[in-house]
Structure formats: structure tokens, C-alpha cells
Design brief:
elongated; mainly alpha
Length: 69
């Protein structure tokens, strides 16, 4: 992995050698909001019912949930 303390090889060089983006070293994931998770679950359920239909967020199915977009 990346050694931030190595005086011989810079962090940038280590990233290039490992084919790893340097910006991803500093990325801290953000927790997903429960309302977003609920909306994603509804979209997935609708998609799994009929994968060939287009899903519209303006569909009455989603209006009944009370979730705001």
C-alpha cells in the first residue's frame, strides 16, 4: 500500500506505480441519507417488477410514498 513516510519514493510516484489515483487516498465516504436509501429501494423494487418499463420519478407509485426529491 501507500507509505506516506517513505522519503525515497513520493506519494505521487507510489500512486503511479500502483496505478492508483492520488485523490482517492484522501477520499472519505459520506453516509447515505435514509430518505435516499428508501427512494433507491423503491426504484429498485419497481425496476425488478418490470425491467422493461421506464421508471418515472413522477409516477403515482412514488408520489404515494411521501418522499421528496
Amino acid at each position: 500500500m501507500i507509505n506516506f513516510q517513505d522519503p525515497q519514493v513520493s506519494v505521487s510516484r507510489q500512486c503511479r506505480l500502483l496505478d492508483h489515483s492520488r485523490s482517492s487516498l484522501y477520499y472519505k465516504p459520506v453516509e447515505i441519507d435514509s430518505q435516499d436509501l428508501a427512494l433507491m429501494r423503491l426504484i429498485e423494487e419497481q425496476y425488478l417488477k418490470d425491467a422493461f418499463l421506464r421508471i418515472s420519478l413522477h409516477d403515482p407509485t412514488f408520489a404515494k410514498t411521501g418522499l421528496s426529491l
